[in-house]
């Protein structure tokens, strides 16, 4: 516990440094980098506190709570990006979270887990992977019909916001129905996170840490987005690459670290659960909620994406089902998922 608190203190100190740089109008690149590191640290802190709180209520609740609060930095980043008129960053941050979790993190977890098995095969329960594939395919269907409508320029293409809101409500209803059944199952093999090796925090301390981390995530996200424009211009990278890769990896630090660690320790079901819960939540909860919340901003977020990313989403959903649907995965499948992410990130780099 002492080690955890020490790391948390360092994370909060980095967040404070980010705030000082922001208000001192320091070099935007430095502010951008420091706040990006702070976001990753805050995400890690939220993950640790969530495990400690969730352990009091049961494994399924813990898994759902971990996914929800683990995506908190991402939520704030998108909201502040929308308020700043950065629609490209907002949309690519969501897409980036989906691709990073479904391809990069899952691929690394499979590679780590299969390597540790005597027969080279990582085995896990098939129910959650198949449920996630179904939810992701539903989201892809909505995105596909909106994207095709936008490309052909039919009458419906002039009502993308309205159609996106209706779709968002439908996705939330379906996700809610799935989540209720998932929480009722309360199966340790599919939902729980094991107690971290540094020891769980006391319940009251974990609650305080969650509150502090949540506030820190809000402030750091604001500073991060504020420094984004001048930093991106100075570095010479596109906003699309920033959102799809940099923001996505920083905002999903919990899944990035925890999933691979669990797989390496042989906790295959738990590792898959961390990633799959996050993928399902981003596609069918976080994105729909942000579509609805964007109605209060000048820039409206929709489900319309460029054809190349529409294709990437569809192929990602198919790849997830193919690789994890049978409850088994081997090293080359994990490397294949990571390779897909690397190719996609390279493509976006040149956009």
Oligomeric state as shown: single chain
- Stretches where pLDDT falls below 50 for ≥5 residues? 188-198
Q: What is the annotated CATH architecture? A: Up-down Bundle
Considering the protein shown, what is the CATH homologous superfamily? NCX, central ion-binding region
Quick recap:
The model is unreliable at 188-198 (pLDDT under 50).
Structure in words:
The protein has 14 helices and 2 strands. It is an all-alpha fold. The chain has a single domain (2-349), classed as A middle domain of Talin 1 (Up-down Bundle), CATH 1.20.1420.30. It is globular. It starts with a helix and ends with a helix. Mean pLDDT is 82; it is low at 188-198.
Descriptive keywords:
single chain, 351 residues, A middle domain of Talin 1, 14 helices, globular
Write the topology of this structure.
Blueprint: H1 2-23, H2 28-54, H3 59-70, H4 72-83, H5 87-115, E1 121-123, H6 127-152, H7 160-185, H8 188-191, H9 203-235, H10 239-251, H11 253-264, H12 268-293, H13 307-324, E2 328-330, H14 331-349
Antiparallel strand pairs: 1-2
Helix pairs in contact: 1-2, 1-9, 2-3, 2-9, 2-10, 3-12, 4-5, 4-9, 5-10, 5-11, 5-12, 5-13, 5-14, 6-7, 6-12, 6-13, 7-12, 11-12
